[in-house]
Amino acid sequence: MSLFDKVHNHELSRRLADSGALAVTSGERSWLRLMLEHPTAPSFLGATAIDKLQLMLQEDEPLSLAHLKEKARSRERRLYAPHLLELAELVRCRSGMRITCEGKGGIVRHHALGYPYRLEYAMSTKEWYLLWLQTSGRPLMRTRLTRMHGVEPMPLPPEEADRLDRRIGALRARRRANAVIELLPRYNRELSRILYALSCFQQEVHYDAESGMYRITVTYQKDESGYLLQKLRFLGKRVRVLEGISLQNELRASALKALARYGVSE
Length: 266
Prior knowledge:
- The chain is an alpha+beta fold.
- It has helices at 3-19, 26-35, 41-45, 47-56, 84-93, 158-175, 191-197, 225-235, 245-261, and strands at 96-102, 108-122, 127-134, 140-144, 148-154, 176-183, 202-208, 213-221, 239-243.
- Strand 2 and strand 3 (127-134) form a beta hairpin.
């Protein structure tokens, strides 16, 4: 790929991201059409979303699986979680809630008051989480949906919802961290693979035409550093952490431990 093609593709991707547009291939459209035929799709997406997607994909054929032969499978885990649609509606309406959930040690908390902020799906645990602000005790909570036993809406005035959104934004900013990851030039052709490996984190890609290097700025929550480290170890010698002292220290420590197992000292 020529330098012009690289710069053009990066600029095109940046403009699509800025406009909120998503480029979808014909294969991805066929895959989505197939997923809409799954029995749990209506309960997971809702009737309105299903109808809209089916209208958009009516000219696409479902992905054919006739050429595949299943020999073995791992234990199937459902992506649908209890109260998912109910909580999504509360987040959309910016409503308060009264929640009954299970905490650490199996202790069940009844009728805890809070404000649901965001639903998150963690790739590391394959679980849905609710990020919410509780009115008493620990302010910002992250609770698995599988540990929730009941949710009731509690209407809030718009001014109170605005205030809580600002408070949550400030709390999350304190927990946010950045790292700059450099892609070694000999692996530039694997850029798409590396970006895919880091796709669950917010990214900004910068290309230095003089050195021919890509640098990826990754923004993540501090409690997600373990999962980011797992991805960096998977990528191995393809990448190098330029900024992010805590990540550098963790990678250095794990490398020294691995060398020590084979009798190699620093």
